């Protein structure tokens, strides 16, 4: 039976003091701090389900803090402090797994960053911009030429004509665009509907905005939207629905029918839509549909996107939000006090990137489809149940044929005993139990890396 889960800010936690000679890790649990342990060994719970430790012992900031305390033994030692709205959020699972990958020499098919570089013509444009002296603060909401390039690209993709001066805000990655949207348009107590599993920053930034989260769970194998449940979830207190298509972590793409139904419900109930479309150029079996392009939806939609996924330049952190002026105002107000402005030379180069010939995007999709085939066929040969992925560069699988109790235990085993990294998907749910049987692999790696990972799993991973 599909259930609706509702989250409100948790109770105040009592921080624990620590001895300067002991390293600690944060975990997803009722306690704020726990001694360093393996993932499988930690038995405390997040809402009574699974816990998610981190590797803060390897964090320079924590090492420095402990070192400073060792050097200043006469000072009174204080417990670590954090605002109540962030108490429940610890080190991200991506940091944890990437650290484990380094420690055990594992092939990292977990975190979604390419192990190959972006196109030369874009990098050369950045170098030229730096040489040309474009190195001071950019205009707060974006370099004019880049804003124009975003508008041009959006028109090609959706047919919509937008005003680059009034309807586009350049941000430091899509993550900041998400944060600026939540903080600029959501009031404390507003209801926002998410579809689980979801990208982890959604919950965190909504928590910072003081929102009340309602969660609609998407279930395998097709992760279809339960329309009746969504209809019941929308109330007079619902401020917005947050959509991610193509969808991380499942690879699902929202169908036109699903988007049209959501649009009708939002118009009927005067609800906003925030749509994260960073994987729009990685749509394989289906065509990407932007929510803003549906009838009556542009005026109530904030479209979020970025450069990193399409051009394999995730470290540049160049993102943007497209919205009508009455919504852009709130986004820009928050953006002004989050980062104020985004990297100037990278914006000039990003303008060049978005004006790339269509052949670039065709080749990008062809290349990723070949990588996807290597990974999917390999995972099936190993013995996983592989769920369909129509977009993004992620694949979700059922790990239960291998006999581990949950996704955390499986991912730890996979790293330590097999030498491959995956991401446990339970961290993408309000109720982690919903994702305990699933793990996510990424294929944004070169073909040699993908084949090497598959070979390791074929050799060492055995069904139980």
TrEMBL record:
Cofactor(s) the protein requires to work: pyridoxal 5'-phosphate
Stretches assigned to the Aminotransferase class I/classII large domain: 107-456
Keyword tags: Aminotransferase, Pyridoxal phosphate, Transferase
Protein name: Aminotransferase class I/classII large domain-containing protein
Molecular functions (GO terms): pyridoxal phosphate binding; transaminase activity
Presence of the UniProt keyword Transferase in the record: yes
Alphabetized SUPFAM superfamilies for the sequence: PLP-dependent transferases
InterPro entries: Aminotransferase_I/II_large (IPR004839), Kynurenine-oxoglutarate_AT (IPR051326), PyrdxlP-dep_Trfase (IPR015424), PyrdxlP-dep_Trfase_major (IPR015421), PyrdxlP-dep_Trfase_small (IPR015422)
Native species: Populus trichocarpa (Western balsam poplar)
